[in-house]
Description:
The chain is mainly α. It has helices at residues 18-39, 63-76, 80-95, 125-138, 143-148, 152-167, 174-186, 191-203, 219-222, 225-233, 240-247, 256-278, 303-307, 326-357, 362-376, 424-435, 439-452, 467-480, 491-496, 499-510, 517-522, 529-559, and strands spanning 102-103, 291-292, 417-418, 457-458, 461-462, 483-484. It has a domain at 141-294 and 340-383 and 390-559. Strands 1-2 form a two-stranded antiparallel ribbon. A two-stranded parallel ribbon has the order 3-6. The longest helix has 32 residues, at 326-357. The radius of gyration is 25 Å and the shape is globular. Residues 1-5, 43-59, 300-333 and 384-389 have low confidence and may be disordered.
Amino acid sequence: MEEREGEVRWDGLCSRDAASRAAALDNIGQAVLRRSESVAPSAAGPPSRAAEGLLVPAARDGLSDVLARLLMLSKRCPFPDVREESEAILGRVQELGIRIPRPLGHGPSRFIPEKETIQVGKEDAMMHALFADSFATLGRLDNVTLVMVFHPQYLESFLKTQHYLLQMDGPLPLHYRHYIGIMAAARHQCSYLVNLHVNDFLHVGGDPKWLNGLENAPQKLQNLGELNKMLAHRPWLITKEHIEQLLKTEENSWSLAELIHAVVLLTHYHSLASFTFGCGISPEIDCEGGHTFRPPSVSNYCICDITNGYHGVDETHASPAGSVPVSIWSQQTSTESVCEVEALMEKMKQLQECRDEEEASQEEMATRFEREKRESMFVCSSEDEESAPTRDVSRHFEDTSYGYKDFSRHGMHVPTFRVQDYSWEDHGYSLVNRLYPDVGQLLDEKFHIAYNLTYNTMAMHKDVDTSMLRRAIWNYIHCMFGIRYDDYDYGEINQLLDRSFKVYIKTVVCTPEKTTKRMYDSFWRQFEHSEKVHVNLLLVEARMQAELLYALRAITRYMT
Length: 560
């Protein structure tokens, strides 16, 4: 693309070389100040609205976006020189009489107090290396990364996989990859991910017309819409006929390698939407809803924040209307929560003893699975509390009425998917690796890290074997998708996962856009936020694997 005069170039900031970053910052500073001076009020002229501190209309020529990007860099860049100089450039713009933006919200998550997250600039050497890698790759340090970094081993695997899917050699062109990410995130109205990938799609040369709706994209991508909605909401309905339609549509057909790439991208972003809502990820500072040009009022509470759903008071102390104030609630439940942890540990101990003493018959195990699958249909939230505000992203997909449906509602029966007949380890892994080299290996590593990750702690207790609990969470998610492990006793799930936890799991996995802070707060009340993020990693990977199993089985049946 041809570079326009005065255009701000950000690429040099991703360099690991301090001299290259300094040169880029110098160019950015000059370009921003030239633009700012062209719209700033003249010192000799009559007082203008800009002199009163309001951004002048001429500044809309991209300047407000540039200033928002500088604000993000001043808060979120892992390189201190970039943070400091970005803040200095904003200060010089402000001196010209132009209002600069300020962040909205409190930190990377609406559910986790900012003081309990890793602060950029205060991370240790290992985390700094991860942050620098992420920034160098994406040109940003996003809020998902800042929450996932509670678990650095997983984050490293996640970033490596995502980088490969989006930027390394592969069957699909770069702009297709980001557009498929938009399609997938939009199925759950995840404006956070849609915003990020709209910017990335345009950055790699995508056609802006495609962003007006799926009907404006090539027919080949439109044909993917049916698979997208089934994978997101009812993957058990995917058949080899759906695969055949995509592979045999004459000039708009997909190759097998392209389809595998698309399926992995769709499942990656469906499950990442679950993480985004499950952890209450805040909008990026430089995206819509992440900043404002309005000044803070005396009470730090202005009407623009309210309409955007951000409150001047710290959310962790705000209580929903009609509920008990949080401080009183904490006093009432702290003892109860401690008992909750002790009770859970006692159940784990008892179940282990029962395992050692007797083993249920295969018939009994099958019955327990069917009972748990049936009961999972009736796990739903009774809350009508508003979830996070999202802008309408429905134009990116069709059939907005199509959502998650439980298996046996309306008399429909879906056969159980037996892992012994088709598993990731024995079937899916090799199929992905054959058609999209190295990706099977990357996914396999990520699944294993999420499943086996442990610090041997539970709330305030140390040296605890949590494998039984992790397996119950993983298998419960697969059970909701009809996937059964013959060697697992599904009676353990009811012993280990209480109702509030099941509501949270089902909401985050099946209808993540309905997740609320109250749901997040109501399960495992005595546990650390890092442990709740760990739960979300299990939900992300179990959901992704469940979707992949159904899609890959259908592709295998088409091929044989």
